[in-house]
Specification:
It is a single chain. The chain has 368 residues and is α/β, with parallel strands linked by helices. It has one domain: Alpha-Beta Barrel (TIM Barrel), CATH 3.20.20. 30% of the residues lie in helices and 15% in strands. The chain contains eleven helices and 15 strands. The strands form four sheets. The protein has an eight-stranded parallel beta barrel with strand order 3-4-6-11-12-13-14-15, surrounded by four helices. Strands 1-2 form a two-stranded antiparallel ribbon. The longest helix has 20 residues. The chain starts with 9 loop residues before the first strand and ends in a 27-residue tail after the last helix. The mean pLDDT is 97. The structure holds flavin mononucleotide. Flavin mononucleotide binds next to helix 10.
């Protein structure tokens, strides 16, 4: 099958991609327990440097927003130094990498915060459970699971601190040699908690109307813009996802309002999670990609259960400028070559998706 569109170059703002295959952000938990990137991660990302663009694993901007054992941060100098090794390795291998800026909000367990409550727009818990920090006798295997706690509703000072931490995170990311940043406004984390009507019941300027619910996102964009040119800035959204208790009264309106904000900011791209088939996330009954695109004339990276054929068609039809692949990148460091040669894909081993060292991380072989 010809994949001429998938293999054509494209510009996302100032980012020049040699192909339209994007490595989706993947939390793999190979950092130090102090949230500092490791040289092993440099090998892993460099193995995948022929992607048109790599989006880093979610990277916390503030210890208050960090609730994932061995995920990375970008709030201190040690983390910046760790990331420099990774960005150098990707650049030396000919690639491009942006940093996904993250704050988990209500999805941080109190166990990560010395017993303090996590913060969120409203005191409503996320649905489900997540991995707790390791017990004292931890042997490196699966971590114990705990349900999410009811968070503390943020006051004005909490909001100001969170916004400032995104600005600082963006500044640090550029110091660490990233080619740009992606604001993580998806998957039920802090910004998404503000955006969606199920998790945001505020009665002040940050809640109620869709204009108010997007105010926090707008402030984060403004803070990031102080340090990063908008043509090197993207954001990731999932306005139809219902995981972790997320939901919205009008996802179409939300998508179109986010499109207007991205347009006004002059952002390089919007990265939309809206699966074309159920898999990691559910395929939505009513997709909102056309609502987003009506208001945003920049590039759209589309994500969710794509393969080479569906990706080629989406780009040929002008539905998206690039497609990102998540699970395929776990087990296929040579995904670009496999697509190009029509080689079958290797299946990921999820036992090592979120825990471990080199096994199940950097040891997936290339096809040739
Ligand atoms: C192991 C794993 C880790 C993930 N970590 C992140 C992350 O850090 N940030 C994010 O926005 N999405 C994350 N996701 C979601 C993926 O980026 C992607 O949206 C999802 O895998 C669906 O794409 P796919 O069908 O190509 O796998 C993760 C998914 C997996 C499987």
């Amino acid at each position: 099958m010809a994949l001429d569109h998938l293999f054509s170059p494209v510009k996302l703002g100032a980012l020049d991609l040699p192909n339209r295959i994007v490595m989706a952000p993947l939390t793999r938990a190979r950092n130090t327990p102090d949230n500092v990137p490791t040289p092993l991660m440099a090998d892993y990302y460099a193995q995948r440097a022929d992607a048109g663009l790599i989006v880093s694993e979610a990277t916390a901007v503030d210890p208050l927003g960090m609730g994932w054992y061995r995920a990375p941060g970008i709030w201190n100098d040690a983390q910046v130094e760790g990331w420099k090794i990774v960005t150098d390795a990707v650049h030396n291998a000919g690639g491009r990498i942006v940093c996904q800026l993250w704050h988990m909000g209500r999805l941080v367990l109190p166990d990560y915060l010395d017993g303090e409550l996590p913060i969120a727009p409203s005191a409503i818990a996320g649905e489900g459970e997540t991995m707790a920090p390791p017990p004292p006798d931890y042997d490196g295997g699966f971590l114990p699971m705990k349900p999410y706690a009811v968070p503390r509703a943020m006051d004005a000072a909490d909001i100001a601190r969170a916004v400032a931490s995104y600005g600082k995170g963006a500044q640090n990311a550029m110091r660490a040699g990233f080619d740009g940043i992606e604001i993580h406004a998806a998957n039920g984390y802090l910004i998404d908690q503000f955006l969606r009507s199920n998790s945001n019941r505020r009665t002040d300027d940050y809640g109620g109307s869709v204009e108010n619910r997007t105010r926090f996102l707008q402030e984060v964009i403004d803070a990031v813009k102080t340090h990063v040119s908008p043509d090197r800035m993207g954001m990731r959204i999932s306005p139809t996802s219902e995981r972790k208790g997320m939901g919205d009264e009008n996802p179409e309106k939300l998508a179109s309002t986010i499109g207007q904000i991205a347009q006004k900011a002059g952002m390089a791209y919007v990265h939309l999670i809206e699966p074309v088939a159920s898999g990691f996330d559910e395929k939505p009954e009513k997709p909102v990609i056309s609502d987003l695109r009506r208001d945003f004339s920049g590039a759209v990276i589309h994500n969710g259960s794509f393969d080479a054929a569906t990706a080629e068609r989406a780009i040929a039809d002008g539905e998206a400028e690039a497609i990102s692949f998540g699970r395929p990148y776990i087990s296929n460091p040579d995904l670009v070559d496999r697509f190009s040669n029509g080689t079958d894909l290797a299946e990921p081993n999820f036992d090592y998706a979120y825990v471990g060292e080199a096994k199940g991380y950097t040891d997936y072989p290339r096809a040739t």
